[in-house]
Amino acid sequence: IAHDAGVQVVLNFSPITQVSESLLKLVNVLIVNQHELAVLGGQEIDVTNLDELRKAVADLGFEQVVLTLGGSGSLVLDSGEVTRIPIFEVDTVDTTGAGDSFMGSLLSALAAGCSLPDGACLAAAVSSLATARMGAQSSYRSASEVRDFLAQQAG
Questions:
Q1: pLDDT level of residue 132 (50, 70, 90 thresholds)
Q2: What is residue 154's DSSP assignment?
Q3: What is the mean pLDDT of the chain?
Q4: Quick one: pLDDT at residue 125?
Q5: Could you please report the per-residue DSSP string of 37-62?
Q6: Which H/E stretch holds residue 36?
Q7: pLDDT band for position 145 (cuts 50, 70, 90)
Q8: pLDDT at 9
Q9: Phi and psi angles of residue 35, each rounded to the nearest 5 degrees, phi first
Q10: Which string of DSSP letters, residue by residue, matches 70-116?
Q11: What is the pLDDT of residue 152?
Q12: Which active-site residues does the annotation give?
């Protein structure tokens, strides 16, 4: 239905569950951490070896993958190109809402027409900011706060 409507299908493989081959074939963007990628591929992958990572992703049949690396940021694989997305340094007090804010921000950015690397960079900023406050939803910032934060980081 999503493809018929011209909408990308994004799968966050967390928590790890059984996913049918037919569903995986419909996925445009896969979001996984290193452990989840290993489960999908059936073997551990050295994510510092970009050739090995590209091959593992290609063997799984995906062209677009966001590989989250926790405090080490993330890697975006987009048609064979790899972009490292660093974390934004903040005084972390609680990581409770970080993953959800990353996902929501990435999906929102993709829906607005952003590229996958740009969307992941925005999501990294939003999720970093979320860790600087206690709680989940109460830690989320407004669009203007995120914009100001990104401007400060660029300046």
A1: confident
A2: H
A3: 90
A4: 94
A5: HHHHHTS---TT-HHHHHHHHHHHT-
A6: helix 34-41
A7: confident
A8: 93
A9: -65, -45
A10: GGG-EEEEETTEEEEEPPPP---S--TTHHHHHHHHHHHHHHTT--H
A11: 87
A12: 100
Under 8 Å between Cβ of 33 and 71: no
Answer yes or no: is pLDDT of 49 > 80: yes
pTM of the model: 0.89
Per the CB < 8 A criterion, the answer to whether 93 and 132 are in contact is: yes
Q: b vs e for 6-25, b when ≥16 Cβ sit within 10 Å of the residue's Cβ? A: eeeebbbbeeeeeeeeeeee
Three-state DSSP state, 8? coil
d(CA 116, CA 137): 24
Query: Measuring CA to CA, which residue among 118, 139, 142, 130 is closest to residue 88?
Result: 130
Q: Residue 105 to residues 20, 77, 118, 125: CA-CA distances in angstroms? A: 26, 18, 11, 9
Q: Is the peptide bond before 15 cis (omega within 30 degrees of 0)?
A: yes
